[in-house]
Amino acid sequence: MLKLKRNLLSVALASATLMVATAVQAQSQPADDAPAPTQESQATELDRVTVTGIRAGIENAIETKKTSSSIVESISAEDIGKLPDLSIAESIARLPGLTAQRVAGRASTISIRGLAENFGTTLLNGREQVSVGHNRGVEFDQYPSELISAVTVYKTPDASLVGQGLSGTVDLQTVRPLAFPERVISLNVRGEHNSLGELNDGYDDMGYRVSGSYIDQFADDTLGVAIGYARMDSPGQAERWESWGYPSDNAGAPGAFLIGGSKSQASSVENIRDGLMAVIEYKPSDSYSSVLDAYYSTFDKSETLRFMETGLAWGGGTSLRNAVIEDGSVVSGAFDGVRPVVRNDKNTQDDEIFAAGWRNEFTFGPDWTAVADVSYSKAERSEMLLETYSGLGHVSGTRTDSVDFVIDQGTGLPQFSYGEDYADPSNLVLTDPAGWGQAGFIKYPGVEDELTSFRLSAERSFLDGIFSSVEFGLNYADREKLRKSGFEGFLRLPNGALEMAIPTEMLTGNADLSFTGIPGMVGYDIDRVLGLYEIDQHSHQDIANKNWTVNEKIATGFVQWNINTDLSDAVSLRGNVGVQVVRTDQSSDGLIVPFGDADNPVPLSGGDEYTDILPSLNLALGMPHDQTLRFGLGQQMARPRMDDLRANQNVSVDATQGVNGEWRGSGGNPELQPWRATALDVSYEKYFGGRGYFSLAGFHKDLQSYIYNQTVAYDFSGYDPREFNPDSPIGEFTTPQNGEGGILYGFETALSIPLDLLWQPLDGFGVITSYSRTKSAIDPLGPDGGDEPLPGLSEEVSNITVYYEKAGFSTRVSQRHRSPFLGEVQGFGGDRQKRYINSEDIVDFQVGYAFAEGTQLQGLSLLLQVNNITNEPYREYFPDAGGLPRIYNEYGRQVLLGASYKF
Prior knowledge:
- The strands form 5 sheets. The chain has a 34-stranded mixed sheet that branches. A 5-stranded mixed sheet has the order 1-6-7-4-5. Strands 13-14-17-18 form a 4-stranded antiparallel sheet, with no helix packed on it.
- By secondary structure, the protein is mainly beta.
- Strand 4 and strand 5 form a beta hairpin.
């Protein structure tokens, strides 16, 4: 199995290569009295450094990093539609100090410098974007890499950057057609195969990706048009195993961790994403330019999940025999009296995103420019979560089973041997086999997010002095996010029946669960079987709590002085100093659920207004031998999570307290103010003639405030106490509150270098590597909340890519590593849950050939990609049970073969 060494090896490689490269470059520096190059030699030199392919993308990204006034990381497509990864999230996750969390086997959300996705902000062409998720974090797999030309990640605050986050700001950029010298038409097609095969009937293990782009210029290059389309039809397959937990206070093996319950699952997902990008750029003169850009995508997912769920230590009425205990855990044994639940579930998710912006730039003489920009974005998500159950018989019956188990000590993955045959449909009935009070469940949650913004700004340039210009402006944004639970209901068999035979005509192919020792289980057409049930609408306070609206009206004024001056013949100074003033007017509408009575909720509204003043300073000191020393200092903020801002409340009276009881409540807090921090950044960068660089950066964030749940005194005056009569309207309310902060600090180092700088025979080879280490002194649950780690924080993150490109042939292998962290996933019932996620190393490989100009096939490129080549599992664990596995998922490797043609 291919495993690239990481961490200390990456750092050692970076340091050794840097020293050699610096020496080589120093030897190649021209003497001070060398003759000036002639015009002919300059032309020759320009021809010599023209690059394409992998190196073109690398060098464009290096140029962005080098010339920026702030500390940034960048990705640039080697050509239109040719970012190397399947998702823009995977490309972003390779940048220094950034990493991705996998969702259903795909990189999705991004963590910047140890802070979860809700601490960052995502822009598209400089404008803040909405999200289909439950909070602020953008799911980057919604954006096809084929439609994105570049990505810039701002790690330090910048007064002119509106909508920036506390951890960082990701700006996705589409093409500008007038930046191209001629018409470009590009077509791409790739076939895809998942190595796990077809785990469920009706789902293919083959898929495809197609994309096309058209870029052209008209009217003497004053009008440019760009249109791009990308479609993905991608199979997702997964072999999943999940444990309910490991109780040590069990009767079968007291004091030893014993598996409480098990889920052996075969998942098949159909992912269909369509993305469309369009840009119209108009520049009739040097005094006016206009860009209208639009982006639209739909992402439809349909998952069939067939699995056996069995209560073991927590099964109710089960007993353990033949237990073998090693290192405090039961590693093998047998359970009697089990009642497995044979589940055929289906989940669908339909996402839609639209974003458009119109930017107009005016130039008034040599010194003044002004910009007017208006934008709109909207995101919608509709889901269906469906569960259906079958089993040996109703819980009141006497039919149970026995199961032997052996747990692999390396992976924690168990192997089961059941006494009954669950692949035989005559052995099973539709029923409530475990006594859960239902034969299935269905729900339809949804999200809507809408944002409108308008920006006016101006810039005054100066010919003399330390400041090259001053920028100032105003941005107004109005955002509304709606979370709705939708309909939820229990599935009941008709006429009160306890069980029903599975209709023969509805049976399909059996699911293969052999990865946990189960040869197979019955599968049936879930959509048709759904029609057999009666649906009993469910009403509960948790359902009412999922209905809320949050509205934010944010006015941002800013002024920034840009610095560009020479301190001496050898030292230059660039950067900016400025301030943002952000006025926030936030409100929320939700429901009060009194005494658990979800059928009679009471409307509730609340909100707050506050102002933040955010100064920032960025300095870049240009030194001899292509070195840069950067310094950043500023005040940052991240607005609260949307679900923390909700106005929902659960209210009751605790009759056990006092003579007449005391008020108790819990819910959101629409008066929450942001996370706020002071950020300090220092970075040293050494560039190698625009072809490579080395960087070493340190950062320190001092959070003056953090948001965590607190129990506070609350005035319940006006609330109906029903049959209770509390002595005082003052009670206790548990809600998110602004509290004490903490510090986050770390360092990151990166190296990108073509190896011919070290030794000419290595021409074509190159290495890109980075390593970051982050530490936290933040108590995310408050000073008295325990030692839970900061969500999203992996102490170590590293990436390494080795590539070769020459004479049309190119290949690269990349690995990204992330150490364990506390993540957030969709848990039971579609709610967001914190989970401890284990370390992972994702390895991708690709090889391609581009036919040279002058040949009959010029413009044609062939490509073979293998993603997750080692089939790295996704693993969650229980920290309080000795790190025993909670979830062990394998998603297989994706193999893609395709071609692109550019003309």
